[in-house]
Every structure is written in structure tokens, then in C-alpha cells.
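anyone seen this seq b4? input:
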Amino acid sequence: MKTIRLTMGQALVRFLDNQYVSFDGQENKFVHGVFGIFGHGCVVGLGEALQEKNHSLKFYQGHNEQGMAHAAIGFAKQNNRRKIMAATSSIGPGALNMVTAAGLATVNRIPVLLLPGDVFACRQPDPVLQQIEQFHNYTITSNDAFKAVSRYWDRIERPEQIMSAAINAMRVLTDPADCGAVCLALAQDVQGEAWDYPVEFFEKRIHFIERRSLGDNAADRAVDIVAGKKKPLVVCGGGVRYSEAGQVLADFCSEFKIPFGETQAGKSAIAWDHQMNLGGIGVTGGLAANRIASKADLVVAVGTRMTDFTTASKWLFKNPDVEFLSLNVSTFDAIKSNSTPLICDARTGLDSLGKKLRARNYHSGYGDEITTIKDQWNTEVDRVYENEMDGKDYSQLRVLGLMNQELFNADAIVVGASGSLPGDMQRVWRPMMPGTYHMEYGFSCMGYEVCGALGVKLACPDQEVYAMAGDGSFVMLHSELLTSIQEGVKINIMLFDNNGFGCIDNLQRSQGIPKFGCELKYRNPDTGRLDEGGASIPVDYAGIAEGYGCKVWRVTNSDELRVAVNEAKASQVSTLIDIKVGFDSMSDGYESWWRVGTPEVSEKPEVIEALEGLKSEIDKLKQF
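predicted toks r here
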């Protein structure tokens, strides 16, 4: 057997550089680069290997470990999981900073490879800088924290271990049913240790992503269920997008007259104006999808996890005869909501069901109600898009309307994650082209917006990318804005400044709790508390971005917004538009409900009233 002597770090880089995926006959290089912040735990091991010029992996200097991992996730998500980036860090705090990103990737079923440095395998210099020592178990390190949030985890304590670990990492990263975060903890001394690796380990390796077909018997069972239903509803999830099944689903729904609602991950798999597209569904859904869902006698979940936001905490589907079918590559997800599971790729599954429904000449029992409810909903969206509020505050919904209908190009990609913006955008944003709505809402992770936008732009360099971020989320994490300046990769930050955490303030008050701790205010000098009496803190977010090297604008009305967005389009560097919006300028719930933990004991009558409302809704759930 022919071998080559390399350090473990060199072997890993060479291996990653030769991984490819094949999907529907199209072959792509899988690992495109590595984000990293070098420290003593990785710079002289893996860092030395990355510095060499004998590979094609591009190294990107991150500026916060969580932020750069978010960028890697954004890149993979926008590439429908068929291209990825890795991220490496030092041990201790650098590694732990990536734990949140690992959770985000795993929850959202997005592949990301995390390569944190680890302590010395030999233990000779222990305890080293940044090493955690557990008195009861010396084998535990900071990187054990990744176990709870990774789909696959391994610790490399001998150089030859990287071979089996790397192959298992690729197994998970390229599996549509099992992908998520992969963590390979790299002992810092072992990164530099050499081994005689077999040459075949570094040969080009193609990972074939096969479409799983729906078995004939399973298809017959499913069609028997559908054939007995008059008011079916499809839920379009992220799996539709990742399997590139948008057109197939659109044709399926048109042919059989079945409407569909969109999850956050499924939105923009199909253009907003498709005749069967009811828009967002669930807690952050709109009137059309939620009203039809309440009467549906069959829910066909395609590529979705059926989270509480999609099902309105299992409250949305009120028809006592409702049944569930679930098309999903993951059995874990397919059995949710007591569904009849159909384990298959979204496209092949829909094709199989379509052929059998066609043979039975099936059509739903809907009359004009789909057109009627869509018209009503479109009228409502038009109304909120024109809402200028009271002349004192600028409406967040008005801003979204101008951006969506007038200012952004049709192929512009919007990126979001947290706060009130995801709710407003799932309800009222109208994607005109597939793949232009990029929302991380499985984890609803504040700080993803700016960093994720960098990854999206790396994936789609010829399209404008807009991070839709609230001021609270921007403050939490915007580190990769500096990376975008450094790399000359232009992104646009639309910063909606409502002076704090308006979304959570709204939730707080909806449960009878007075304003407390959510607005960005100085401490109340009279009460010594963070309540209503404190003065607002004026923050110049545009000034922060300007210090990085961005072009910036400060906006308080529609005319200023028009000028800013049009000038931002012409900019060659990253931009930030600081938009001052009203604190309570978000959209309504549109016949949805979300279960939260309201206190059972309180001195506030309003809280007890909210509790009674909660109990009432829970009692209603028992009927279904």
C-alpha cells in the first residue's frame, strides 16, 4: 500500500479538498473553504496546513467564532446543502463560541463542519492555557459541550484517527436525513503529529445524494387517504427547497386544486403569486393559510418539522376529522403530528402521489374559497404595506412594503432570523423568485442575520443580499460585517431600530405583564428599575458600521429610504441603512395562537386574566 507522510492537520486539509457531491447527475466540490480565528489551539497545526499552497480551500479570517460559523451555515443553506464551509478555532472560549452555531445548524438540518482545537492528548504540559479541568473526569474538555448540539462528534487523539472520523463526518454532512453540525475536536499536539497515511485516503471521493423513492405500497396507502378527503392542505417546508421540488409541488397543487401554506424554511420555494399559494402558515402566518388550515380535513406535510410555530402549538388544525400525511427523508420528522409517514424525497414522493391521484381523477372539493381568501389576504397585505402610522413613528410594515414592492430587485435575497421581523416577513413578504427568502427560524438565533448574510453572498455573489436585522440582534452579533469589508464581499444591512426588543415586549404585555426590561432605556431614576420611566438611549448604529468602513444612511421616512436603498445598490462596499421605526409597528397574529408559560400565581389581575385565556385554549385542544 502506497503511503505519504503528513501531519494530521495536513491530512485533514488534503482530504477535505477532494470531497465532491453528486446530485441528479450534477457534480460539485463539497468543501469550498474554511473560516477561522487562529489561536494557540489551531494556528501551528491545522493553521500551518491551511497556509500551504498545495490545496484549493480558501481561508476566510473570521472575527467572532459564532459569527463565522453562522456565515458557514448561511453558505450551506443557500446552496441547498450541497456545498459547505468548515470553521476552525482555538480551544476554550474560541471553541465554546461555536456551540450556539452548532445548535443552529443541527436544528435547521444544515451541514456545517466545526474543527475546534482541543487540549494536549499527551497531557504532558497540562493544564494548558484555556483548558478546563474537571476534577471528577479528566477526559472532559470544553468541546464536550458540542455533544448536545452536534449530529456527529469525535475527538482526535492520534493522527490516524482522522481517517475514520473524516469519513464519518462526510457521511453525516452529505446525508439529507441526518445532516447538521459535525464537530471534530482536534487535540492541538496531534494536529502537528505525522503519520504514514495511505494515498487512497486522499483520492477524489464522490458522495452520491440519492433521491429516495416512495414505495408503491406506501403510495397506495397515502392515496387511499387523500381520495377520501375534500379539503386537503399542503404544508411546504424546507425539504421542498433542498430537494429542488418547488416546481413539482406547484404543479401538483395546481392539478389537484390543493392549496398550500409555507413554513419559514419553505417560503420562496414557489413564487408568492402562485394560484394555490396561501402564504405563511401558523403563529407567524397569514389570514389565508390559517383560515383554510382550521377547516382542512387532511394536512400533507412536505419536508417540514411541524414545529409549534407551524402548527400554532398543535392548535391550528381544528377539523375533528383531520388526518396527517408527511413526506420526509427523515423518519424522525415524518411521524410528527401522528402523521402517516411517507419516507421519501419530496420530489419523487410528489411524483408518485401525483400519478396515482391522476389515475383516480382526484380533485379537491374546494370551490371559489381559495381565490376568495387569497384576494382578502392580498387586500390586507396591501393595506399594511401602506400603513404610515400616525406621522410620529415610521411603520416597520411600511418599510417592508417599500422594499418588497418598489426598491429591491426581484432576485434580491433577504436574510433574517429573530425578533418581530420574521413574523412580519413570513406574513407579508412576497418573494418574486425562488430562493430569495432566507430565514433561520428553527433556532431563531439573534445575531445570525448579518453573519448569515455574508455566507449567502459568498454563495450568490451576483445577487444583492440584504440582512433584515433589528437593533437588538445587530448589537448581539455583527462581527462578520468586518469580514465582508476585508474580503470585498458586499452585503447590505437593513437595521430596523425600534429601540430594543419590541417582539418580546409585545409578548410580555400580551400576558398582562407591564413593560419591563425589553426597551433600550436608561434605568428609571425614580424607581431604580428598567421600566417605563427611563429615557431612551440614542444609539448611532450607522456610526458603528461606518467605523468598519461601510457606507451608511440614517432614515426616518419613506423618501429618505428610497434614496438610501437606491444609493446602496450602487455601492461597491457593504452598506448599512439605520431605519428608525415605531416600537409597536409589527403585524397582527391573524387567527393563530402560541402557547407560552404564563404564571399561575400573580398579584397582577391582567396576568391571571391571560392565564384563564391560556387554560381556555388548552381546553379547546382536548377536543381535537
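The radius of gyration is 25 Å. The chain has three domains: 3-209, 216-369, 386-499+537-580. kinda curious what u guys think
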